[in-house]
Amino acid sequence: MASNDRKPLISGNWKMNHNHFEAIQTIQKLAYALEKDDYEAVDVSVHPPFTDLRSVQTVIQADDIPIALGAQNVHQETSGAFTGEVSPTMLAKLDVSYVIVGHSERRELFGETDEIVNAKAKAVLAAGMTPIVCCGETLEERTAGQAESKVAGQISGSLAGLDAATVGDLVVAYEPIWAIGTGETATPEDAQQMCGHIRSLIESEWGAAAAAGVRIQYGGSVKPGNAPELMAQPDIDGALVGGASLDADDFSRIVKYPLYQA
Ligand code: 13P
């Protein structure tokens, strides 16, 4: 795809790390490290654990920080007898903008299917937020030459029933499972190939405008050192960062990737 006007989105998925005191420190350090130019070039979101959301929201509001608040998961129902779950409307009330759905850890460790991910994505949209819909293959699937078909199934299943305008506004994160937390990153070429594949799948199911609008993030051992090259790929519109997002210095260096591009 030729040059585009998709604004990159760099998201920090803190997973089950940082209590609310640590979260406050991290967001404050991040706000200190990032400048107006950074926010003009790149959208930034942080995804703390549920117990930290209110604390981080308060800091963001009080200091008028242009970082979007995100969540890592959500339940698909609005309210009811779902012990331990958090609803989309509860997140929206905390000014959450982005919600990760279908992260591979949710799919693998908590049994989330494409149907569940699809229901969650729809619930997030209904509450006025943007889902970050995750997909990605295992090492075995890649070795067996099944990576593209696995991701294709996840995309059609997870986005089923959404209209083209909605798909054009959402975020997809391609995270090869073998690259998550392993220090092993997909090469920029491999990451580009799969992100390009995802964009063409979206084009064939939802049309050219949806494909041109959807932002596709890469995730899996993104670090300050490899971010510039990954982000230079034409179909990579951002990064979903795990480990390196816990440290404000590392994460801000990733956000500042344009400074390190040739
Ligand atoms: P790492 O950056 O720690 O590999 O995690 C990636 C990820 O799963 C982000 O959602």
Q: Which ligands are bound?
A: 1,3-dihydroxyacetonephosphate
Rg over C-alpha atoms, rounded to the nearest angstrom = 17 Å
In whole angstroms, the N-to-C terminal distance is 20 Å
Work out the number of β strands. Answer: 8
Query: What is the SS-derived class?
Result: alpha/beta
- Arithmetic mean of pLDDT: 97
Largest sheet, strands/sense/barrel: 8 strands, parallel, barrel
Question: Roughly what fraction of the amino acids lie in strands?
Answer: 5-15%
Helix tally equals 13
Strand order of the largest sheet: 1-2-3-4-5-6-7-8
What is the general shape? globular
Question: Which parts are unreliable, with pLDDT below 50 for 5 consecutive residues or more?
Answer: none
What string gives the helices and strands in order? EHHEHEHEHHEHHHEHHEHEH
CATH class: Alpha Beta
Q: How many separate domains make up the residues?
A: 1
